[in-house]
From TrEMBL:
The purine nucleoside phosphorylases catalyze the phosphorolytic breakdown of the N-glycosidic bond in the beta-(deoxy)ribonucleoside molecules, with the formation of the corresponding free purine bases and pentose-1-phosphate. It is an enzyme of class 2 (transferase). This is Purine nucleoside phosphorylase. It comes from Aequorivita viscosa. Its EC number is 2.4.2.1. Keywords: Glycosyltransferase, Transferase.
Amino acid sequence: MKYTEEAASYLKQRGFENPEIGIILGSGLGRMLEYMKIEKEVSYNHIPNFPTATVEFHRGKLIYGTLEGKKVVVMQGRFHLYEGYSLQDVTFPVRVMRSLGIKKLLVSNAAGAINPNFKKGELMLIDDHINLQGSSPLAFKGVEHLGERFVDMSAPYNATMNQRLQQIADEKKIKLNKGVYASVVGPQLETRAEYRYLKIIGADAVGMSTVPEIIVANHLGLPVVAISALTDECDPDNLKPVNIEEILEMAAKAEPNLITLYMELLKGF
């Protein structure tokens, strides 16, 4: 708690005043900032107790400003287990944003499509998830001082915001799939057998992030939604070698629709 308060205090002194909404931008999904009136930005490595982003396409800045008339704080770049961080490190920014005052959290990521009906370049609204990262961001001594230890996860994604996103998608004629996101450790991508396993257990998409942040948002009583940009099709019978450039290209293709959905959602808050 002390570490969270130190980071939040530092940011408040630098003008991060009373943000209403927190936003986490996933891999290749940074263009929302073009629509934002940016007032303050701070590199992660300047914020007390903050981890530092090490992935080249995760920029590593916390940005404050106005989007659709709302005060927002945006993570440009997130943290992952595969970078060598703990789950407490990965989720620390969510706790800091909550301490700054956010009332809702919007999350995005890039993911591979497991469901054969979902195509790369499309979006998936996350309705539920499977945690395959081997632990929990709440599995540490003293967690009960930060909130209820045994957090209910029967509905981890806010139903009201999810319904509104589906309405917006219908109104704007945006293809918005709905499904289950499986979070793995990475950084290697999955084998053919692993893709088959993920399909068997009910995953519609797979990625290496998001679930820890969702768990902590629920721990904090923070309403949260998440959308995946589907960047590749994980068909084990027709699997091709991974192409990171194509994955980022597909994220860029899906991004305008993601931005539309979240900006329209913000208008209604």
